[in-house]
Amino acid sequence: MCARPSRIHFEQWQRDDIEVRLLLKGGGCMNAQYSLPAQLAHLGRADRTIDGVRKCILHAVWNAQGKGCAPA
Where are the domains of the chain? Predict the structure, then answer.
């Protein structure tokens, strides 16, 4: 799998607002499961607190980057 840069399409118009649309890649095949407390690479210890849960989410997102299923 090769990494590809994001594509940005734009049109000029005579309006005072902008419209931004986002198409997320993948169908969500990547998953992660954590048992707290845990020691996470580059993030340190994740305890059974809301901050620990945030660390787990960031860790899972970082590890899954670019590895999701193709859109169907």
Answer: 1-72
